[in-house]
Amino acid sequence: MKNIKLEKICFLGLFLSLGIYGCSSKFIAGEGLSVLAEIRDTQGKQLNSCAIELQNKDGEILDGPDNVPGKFHKVFTIIPNNVDYLISISCPGFKTHEITATYGEDVTPIRPLRLGKITMESLSLQLQ
């Protein structure tokens, strides 16, 4: 009889510990700002040596720069506030592509920011 009670107490303790850990890790880690895109040049060729970074509205880098392939799904960990974020995508020899997104409107934990095909403008075209 004592063994059954002890097992129930141990199981309950384990269950509560996992529940507390799961809840606390969500608050510590924050939410995700998910970005999906495909990066191409003006001829439609996929660019594979690019970087992405996330900034707040004051220009402070919050995450990155991280290397991304030509077609990517990047998740930034953020505190879930309805604020504007600047997402910068840069590739060598191309002008930086910047997108402003408002968390809670343009992107949510269940709705990623789908940028589709991004055509990067060559820096050599700007000099002409």
What does this protein look like?
It contains two helices and seven strands; from the N terminus they run H-E-E-E-E-E-E-E-H. 26% of the residues lie in helices and 41% in strands. By secondary structure, the protein is an alpha+beta fold. The protein has helices spanning 2-29, 123-127, and strands at residues 31-40, 50-56, 61-68, 71-78, 84-90, 97-102, 113-119. The model is unreliable at 16-29 (pLDDT under 50). A hairpin with a 4-residue loop joins strand 2 (50-56) and strand 3 (61-68). The longest helix has 28 residues, at 2-29. The protein is globular, with a radius of gyration of 22 Å. It has a single domain (30-127), classed as Immunoglobulins (Immunoglobulin-like, Sandwich). A four-stranded antiparallel β-sheet has the order 3-2-5-6, with no helix packed on it. Strands 4-1-7 form a three-stranded mixed β-sheet.
Which range does the strand content fall in? 35-45%
Order of helices and strands: HEEEEEEEH
Roughly how much helix do the residues carry, as a percent range?
25-40%
Shape summary: globular
